[in-house]
Amino acid sequence: MASPNKMHEYAGVRLLVFRVADLACAADASVVREILPAQQATRVPGAHEAVEGLINVRGRLVTLINGRQALNHPPENGDGPVILVEVGERTVGISVDAVLDMFSVAPDDLAERADLPGVDAQLVKAVGRRADMSFVLLDTDALLGPYLAA
Amino acid sequence: MDLSQYAELFLVESREHLSSINQQLLEWERSPQATEPVAGIFRAVHTIKGMAAAMSYSVTSDLAHRMESLLDILRTGDGEVTQDHFELLFRATDTLEQAVAASVSGREGQLDVAEVLAALDAATRDLGAAARRPSRSSMPLVAVSEGPGIWIRVQIEPNSTLVGARAAVVIGRMEAIGAVREVRPPPSAFESDEFDGQFDFQLETELDPEAIEREIRAAGDIKQVLVGAERSRTDVKQTASGRSRHVRVDLQRVDSMMDLIGELVTARDQLTQVSAARTAGDLDDLTLKISRLTSDLQAEIIQVRMTPVWQVFDRFPRLVRDLARQLDKQVEFRVEGKEIELDRAILDEIGDPLVHLLRNAIDHGIEPPAEREALGKPPTGRVVLSALREKAKVAIKVSDDGRGIEREKILDRARRDGMVGDEVETLSDELLLRVLARSGFSTAAEVSDVSGRGVGIDIVATRLRALGGGLEVSSEIGVGTTFTLQLPITLAIVRALTVEVGDERYVLPITHVTETLDLDSSAVTELDGRAGLMYRGTVIPLVDLRELVNVSGIVPDRRPVVVVQIGGRRSGVVVDTLTGQQEIVVKSFDPPSGTLPIFSGATILGDGMPVLVLDAGGLV
Q1: Is the same domain home to B354 and B460?
Q2: Beta-strand relationship, B331-336 and B198-204
Q3: B608: which chain A residues are within 8 Å (Cβ-Cβ)?
Q4: In a domain, B100, yes or no
Q5: For residue B185, is the peptide bond before it cis, meaning its omega torsion is within 30 degrees of 0?
């Protein structure tokens, strides 16, 4: 365990942990703006099939991306929550199966990205573990960016 | 005193002064004998210097100081102004603008201003006078024995920004010329919101009252100076009310209020429906009340967002001048209707399109002076940018008296590219715009780096349609070209037709809908290998929205056709059902990659669901 001094120096990374299919994922909480209940989206013709469409967030139109499909899982008509994250200047929604937890981890607790079966290594920033749960820290820019227009 | 909180205000205000410097430089360049522009420039530069010094932005204040030295000699008539001076002053103004921006973001040190400073000093020296640099040590010393000194009251323009910083600047300037005592209210109160810009202090100095007043007024936006005022602060608070007060508000706040009010309107409509379904008198009354308040609130926010067009237009005279010089053209630029107001969001959309059109006018429209003279035209071309209010619309025109668009050339090119058939013999204005609007289409014989290549006009046209407006062009060989942007005054509240295909809804602005009719299978024919519809004696393209947006499911037996028209182009759009008309607010959205290019925006319907707005331009 790090000394108190060191703890202060590395304040830790705050993470939002959520489940997509059977995968425990995490996103850097600093890019998470909001968590919404399940949202019905309006399909946008021509967009990638992982793009569920547009949702209305208090009058603003936000693109919603299906978390399962973005991570190469078959879609399921669930009613899971939507996490709004910032991708560059834009706010994008990602639908997930469930939001699990929010906590801080010391950078030491995160390991360099490892090869994980079924997850594109390009989308993973790191792999972490806390209590009895291991999770992948996703690179939300890499995950969601490709679905947005340049 | 910590001045960092004033940085943003310093930036805003300095930009206003820089804009005024640019304007007056242009004016001065046009009539070098005039004395007003140089005096105005001198004051503006002087104010920036004062503010920058108060904020401890030394690079900015130094640069402003050297500009001031040169301007001072030119102002007093000791030196004759030349074209080189104008070039130098324009360059220095640009550098000053960079310095202001760099100062605020703390990057002042990274700026390289040495060359401009040297050029300014050299010009000042060449005019036969050494750059006057008053230093504090050369200031008159304070006469300590002269008793308590004089009381001075200063009133800063209450509506100006940086009231507190200005007060601090005044005190700073006074400390440089004498001893300052008894500042009331104390400088620590300058930062408070309560501070109304009036303060008194006692000053001991050898300067005469006139010189003192000059020093004070140099801080800028000084409303009143009373030198030798009786010491009394009793009548200070007399009129805090009764004047129109302004606050600067972050635009994002206004936008987000607009969105929330839009939501409120939606909720109100739902409430009205719920209330209508029950018969409860008190609920009806309350609903009516909320309904009225919501409408008032909506009208109010729309007013808040109104912005005069000069906020965008003011940067154009300089742009036009620089372009004209770069291209060796002589251009007289006129701006009309600067005070016309538009919704902020609409104004934001037209800045780039206008730059594009102005560049085109100067680059391709206006002929070189020699060519103009050979044609019997005055060597100086004219470009006019005008805003004109016409009922609920504003027309913004960019016109030039240049060579006009050579239709034959463009027609040839359009034929070669397969954009028009061989049967088309002349290009109407409307067809011309369509050809020009095709991205990548170049109208210039040779492509210069100044103007685009027709790129952008298509985007301009789509944007304008999304806002409920339009774009027109008229052009005559040898006489000139005019582009007209038609814009709604307020954010597009557009009447639209709601249509359905499968279980999806779309809306289509009614401006471009000519007619709706039932699809008669016997009228379906073929047009250039695609589906066509016999319509009023001609055949128009027929588009099935189902196929376009790729909707599956059972196709109803009877389907309506919506005939849309833009300019002279028409097409029939087949849908499953027409579900009605309603007013919608068109919002822009970031289309995900791959989105079909047939949408101009999206809107939120009464049930809170987003719906895409079909762009008539993408359907014909």
Answers
A1: yes
A2: unpaired
A3: 56
A4: yes
A5: yes
CA distance A147 to chain B (A): 6
CA-angle at B328, arms to B326 and B334, nearest 5°: 85
Q: Is pLDDT at B597 greater than 80 in this prediction?
A: yes
Of B260, B592, B609, the CB nearest to A59: B260
- Closest by CA to A141, choosing from A101, A92, A99, A96, is A92
State how many domains chain A has: 1
Tokens read off for B174: 């006074």
Residue at B375 is within a domain: yes
- Chain A residue numbers with beta carbons less than 8 Å from the beta carbon of B594 are 46-48
Contact A44 B604 (CB under 8 A): no
CATH number reported for the structural domain that contains residue A47 in this entry: 2.40.50.180
Number of neighbours of residue B363 by Cβ within 10 angstroms: 21
Q: List the structure tokens of B492.
A: 């597009």
- Per the listing, tokens 């952008």 go with B456
Query: Are the beta carbons of B140 and B177 closer than 8 angstroms?
Result: yes
Asked if A58 lies within 8 A of B548 by C-beta distance, the reply is: no
Residue B212 is part of a domain; what is its CATH number? 3.30.70.1110
DSSP A103-145: EEE-GGGEEEP---TTS-GGGEEEEEEETTEEEEEE-HHHHHG
CB contact B593 to A (< 8 Å): yes
Residues of A in contact with B504 (CB under 8 A): 42-43
Residue B120 lies in a domain: yes
User: Of B27-31, B350-354, B598-602, where does mean pLDDT reach its minimum?
Assistant: B350-354
Please indicate, yes or no, if residue A120 is contained in any of the structural domains: yes
pLDDT digits (tens, 9 = 90+) for B481-490: 999 998 887 7
- Find how far residue A63's CA is from the centre of its chain: 15
> Do residues B320 and B460 share a domain?
yes
Question: Do both B302 and B215 map to the same domain?
Answer: no
Identity of the amino acid at B381? G
Say how many C-beta atoms besides its own lie within 10 A of residue B282's C-beta: 7
Contacts of A147 in chain B (CB under 8 A): 592-593
Taking the C-alpha atoms of residue B130 and residue B137, their distance in angstroms, rounded to an integer, is: 18
pLDDT tens for residues B371-413?
A: 999 999 999 999 999 998 876 688 999 999 998 888 888 888 7
Interface check for A88 against chain B (CB to CB < 8 A): the answer is no
Give the count of Cβ contacts less than 8 A between chain A and B: 73
Residues of A in contact with B549 (CB under 8 A): 45
For the cut 80, the answer to whether the pLDDT of residue B288 exceeds it is yes
Is the Cβ pair B595, A48 closer than 8 Å?
Answer: no
Q: What does the pLDDT read at residue B3? A: 61
Q: Measure CB to CB from residue B591 to each of A40, A44, A146 and give the nearest one.
A: A44
Which sign, positive or negative, has the C-alpha torsion B532, B535, B539, B541? negative
Q: Do B595 and A45 touch (CB under 8 A)?
A: yes
* Alpha-carbon span B199 to B156, nearest angstrom: 9
> Which residues of A are less than 8 Å from B598 in CB distance?
45
Q: Which of residues 24-83 of A touch B (CB under 8 A)?
A: 40-48, 51, 53-56, 58-61, 63
Residue B570 lies in a domain: yes
